[in-house]
Design goal:
single chain, alpha+beta, three-stranded antiparallel beta sheet, 9 helices, about 55% helix, elongated, disordered N terminus, disordered C terminus
Length: about 300
C-alpha cells in the first residue's frame, strides 16, 4: 500500500488528473500508431493498447480512498484484516480485492452517575465519574477485529465499574476522603491497565461528585459535632485552670504582703499607710484648690511640721 497520508490534494482532484493523463496517453498512442501518417488508419495493436489504458484508468481509482482526520483505516482483503493500517489522508489498495474500514481514534467521554462501591470498612460509597479515552492508533486492527464500534459498552463501562470497586475496597471511608489524591492515582492506574489490554488508552478520569450513604453521613456529622463539643469543653477547662492559677498567685502575694507588714513597726506602718493614702488622693486630684481653706490639700500637716 502506498502511504499517501497527509496529502493536501482532494480525492476528486486526483481522479480528475488521472483521467486527464489517461486521455493524453490515449492521444499519444493514436498519434504514434498512425499508418503512413494518416489519421484514419491504425493498427490493431494501437486500438488494443488504447483500450487497455482506458480500462486501467477506469479500474485503478477504485482502490483509491481517503482516511478522515482523527481516524485510522484497517485494510481488509476479501473481508479479512491484513494487519496493515492506513493513516490519515489518501491511500491505495488493490481494487475490488481490498477495502479500508475507518476506526475513530478521537477522544471520547463516558459518564457514570452514582457508580456504587463498598469501602474496606463495608461502607457504601457513590461517585459520579467522567472517563475520557481513545482508541490507540497502533491497535486499531485489534479493536476492529474484536470490538468493532461497540467498545464503550463492552469494555469501557465494565472496566470503570470494576476498577472503582477494586479501588474503594482497598481504603476505609476516612481514607477515601483524607487520601483522595492517592485514591485517584490508584483508580487511574487500575483503569488504564484494564483498557490497554483491549487497545484503548485512558486520557483523563474525573470524579465530579463523591458521597456516602445517608446513615454514614449522619454518623459523620454527629462525630464532628461531638469533636467540636469536646474541644469546647477542653478550652473551658483550660480557662478555669488558668483563672484558678491566677487566684492562687494572688492569694500567695497577699499572704506574702501580710507577712512583710507583720515585721514592720506600728509607727512606720501607720506612716506608710498615710503616704499611700496621700498618693492615691494626689492621683485623683483634678488640680483645683478648695475655695474655703488656706492650706494646700494633702500638705497641711506636712507644712505645719516643717514650719515648726
Amino acid at each position: 500500500m502506498n502511504d499517501l497520508s497527509q496529502v493536501s490534494v482532494s480525492l476528486d482532484t486526483v481522479r480528475e488528473w488521472s483521467w486527464f493523463f489517461t486521455w493524453l496517453c490515449v492521444g499519444a498512442i493514436f498519434y504514434a500508431g498512425r499508418r503512413n501518417g494518416s489519421w484514419s488508419r491504425y493498427s490493431r495493436s494501437t486500438f488494443v493498447l488504447a483500450v487497455a489504458v482506458i480500462a486501467i484508468a477506469a479500474i485503478w481509482p477504485a482502490g483509491l480512498g481517503r482516511v478522515q482526520p482523527g481516524a485510522r483505516g484497517v485494510v481488509l482483503r476479501f473481508g479479512a484484516p491484513t494487519g496493515r493500517i492506513a493513516s490519515e489522508g489518501l491511500y491505495y489498495v488493490i481494487p475490488f480485492a481490498e477495502r479500508v474500514v475507518q476506526v475513530n481514534t478521537q477522544i471520547n467521554t463516558v459518564r457514570f452517575d452514582r457508580a456504587q462501591a463498598v469501602t474496606h470498612d463495608l461502607e457504601p460509597v457513590y461517585a459520579d465519574l467522567a472517563v475520557t479515552f481513545h482508541v490507540r492508533p497502533d491497535r486499531v486492527v485489534d479493536v476492529y477485529t474484536h470490538l468493532r464500534d461497540d467498545y464503550a459498552q463492552r469494555i469501557v463501562n465494565p472496566a470503570v465499574e470494576d476498577a472503582w470497586r477494586a479501588t474503594a475496597s482497598d481504603y476505609s471511608s476516612n481514607d477515601l476522603i483524607a487520601q483522595r489524591a492517592t485514591v485517584q492515582s490508584a483508580f487511574e492506574a487500575g483503569l488504564r491497565s484494564r483498557l490497554e489490554r483491549f487497545g484503548l488508552g485512558l486520557d483523563a478520569l474525573a470524579t465530579t461528585r463523591f458521597n456516602f450513604s445517608y446513615t454514614y453521613s449522619q454518623a459523620a456529622q454527629a462525630k464532628v459535632a461531638s469533636v467540636q463539643r469536646t474541644l469546647q469543653a477542653e478550652q473551658e477547662l483550660q480557662r478555669i485552670r488558668f483563672e484558678a492559677q491566677q487566684s492562687v498567685i494572688r492569694a500567695k502575694s497577699e499572704v506574702a504582703a501580710l507577712n512583710l507588714q507583720r515585721g514592720v513597726p506600728a509607727a512606720q506602718l501607720i506612716k506608710l499607710r498615710e503616704l499611700d493614702l496621700q498618693r492615691r488622693a494626689i492621683e485623683k486630684w483634678d488640680g483645683h484648690l478648695p475655695a474655703t481653706t488656706g492650706a494646700l490639700p494633702f500638705l497641711g500637716n506636712a507644712l505645719g511640721q516643717h514650719s515648726d
